[in-house]
């Protein structure tokens, strides 16, 4: 007996949708996105959380986060055509814990995600390929790809698409992958049905909150960026507040502590000795880089974002934290750097290493008011100016 026309239409639509969603998952896997999920776009129930976070200054200098915040809550404002989001997770190598005494060897630490070519470039290329596959199947489809930059609360959409749960460190976590993956999205003018929100698996654990060296994490999925080492070493452009400098240890680009201590992440981490020089670079060698040297070494890396002045500022702080007299020579040379921010942090570091002779000599010829202030503070002649 023939099926009623309406039922046939429903079955055809269902079949199309199911095969489209399967096809999307297959494209994702083919391109190396180990996680893939979807959800319909709606207004996120985060307006009061996000506005309170901004109002408390937790975005620090990241002004772009505060620009038209409602766009991040309601994606239909910037993109009226968008109906669903495809959320993707792309894995990266977890950090290998250092086997070296960094103070002795004067080695810095970089966050694991910074190894190799900048992930933005790699993922953007893959998203283009993804879109080409999608458009083959759906000609005329409207799409908008994203990775990291843009008015999307990426973790929230990934959470709603079933990619993982919000850890108490605010990272998106997956049972099999921990949090060692980047997120990317494609907004589409299609209706895609997802699998819903996954359950959380932090339980009573609070290790990330307890072990954060700067107390940047608070209960309730709150990260206070102005205290976070990742923010201070990458996004923050000016002087690092004095009180926080000793807490940076040897982190010179990003920070992985709240991920490294997470029990969901500990099963990863095969020794990657090939990454040793990239993730634990020699601090004196970095402090010796001029603009050309910095460009040659980091132009294609995520580290490029910190710029030379930001990275060398961080390197000076790490050398100051080393408690190793071998750091004095490179820091003395940095007192003659053309960039006042670097000279100022070198002065702080030499003060911490109690090398007053080089500070007094530098004071005789230093013209820049901010560096003079650092030199005087390092000599113990004035209280440290706090940001
Ligand atoms: C700004 C930014 C930062 C800032 C601020 C971080 C932060 N937590 O906001 C700084 C520079 C500190 C930073 C650091 C890092 N970042 Co970052 N960052 C971003 C960026 C560009 C925006 C994040 C944002 O909007 N923050 C605003 C605040 C309000 O959002 P939130 O902290 O995520 O808050 C959410 C939760 O609190 C949750 N929430 C609130 N209440 C409740 C209640 C319940 C019940 C639940 C479940 C959730 C919940 O909702 C909030 C809004 O979504 C995103 C990319 C993007 N466009 O989304 C990458 C991104 C979040 N960063 C990423 C990474 C890898 C890092 C670092 C690991 C890098 C490093 N090694 O140094 C660290 C991790 C620090 C940490 N613990 O978060 C990845 C995270 C991937 C993942 N698996 O989670 C992202 C997604 C980039 C990407 N495309 O891959 N980052
Ligand atoms: S990235 Fe480091 S400083 Fe920032 S919240 Fe995590 S442990 Fe704390
Ligand atoms: S360390 Fe513990 S509380 Fe923090 S994200 Fe991991 S499981 Fe959750």
Précis, in short:
By secondary structure, this protein is α+β, with helices and mostly antiparallel strands. It contains 18 helices and 10 strands. The strands form 4 sheets. A 4-stranded antiparallel β-sheet has the order 1-2-7-4, sandwiched between helices. Strands 3-10 form a two-stranded parallel ribbon.
Question: Can you describe what's shown?
Answer:
There is one protein chain. The chain has 387 residues and is α+β, with helices and mostly antiparallel strands. It has a domain at 282-387: Alpha Horseshoe (Leucine-rich Repeat Variant). It is 41% helix and 10% strand. The strands form four sheets. The chain has a four-stranded antiparallel beta sheet with strand order 1-2-7-4, sandwiched between helices. A hairpin with a 5-residue loop joins β5 (165-166) and β6 (172-173). It is elongated and about 90 Å long. The model is unreliable at 11-15 (pLDDT under 50). Cobalamin (B12) binds next to α2, α7, β7 and α9.
What is the helix fraction of residues, given as a range? 40-55%
> What is the CATH homologous superfamily assignment of one domain?
Leucine-rich Repeat Variant
Mean pLDDT: 93
Ligands bound to this protein structure:
cobalamin, iron/sulfur cluster
CATH topology term of one domain = Leucine-rich Repeat Variant
The radius of gyration is 24 Å
Give the H and E element order: HEHHHEHEHEHEEEHEEHEHHHHHHHHH
Q: Main traits of this protein?
A:
Leucine-rich Repeat Variant, binds iron/sulfur cluster, single chain, binds cobalamin, 4-stranded antiparallel β-sheet, 18 helices, 387 residues, alpha+beta
